[in-house]
Amino acid sequence: MPAPILERWNAELIKVLKAPDVIEQLNKHGLTPLPGTRDELGRYMQSEYATWGRVIRERKITAE
Questions:
Q1: What pLDDT digit, counting tens, does each position of 16-61 carry?
Q2: What is the pTM of this model?
Q3: Taking CA atoms, which of 16, 17, 26, 38 is between 20 and 30 Å from 8?
Q4: In sequence order, what DSSP letters do the residues of 1-64 get, joined into one string?
């Protein structure tokens, strides 16, 4: 997908995630909105993948 389109989507998503009513609803469900850049999201996802991948391998967790 072209970068300008992705940047526009990200900008619109950030607006939504900063709206007080959206924050309130997310908080009610135990979620904390963390709007950021596409690169920040990519780094976060890589970090989570590495963390949970390690936990799964160390604990020998399998799908059942």
A1: 999 999 999 999 999 999 999 989 989 999 999 999 999 999 999 9
A2: 0.66
A3: 26
A4: --HHHHHHHHHHHHHHHTSHHHHHHHHHTT-------HHHHHHHHHHHHHHHHHHHHHHT----
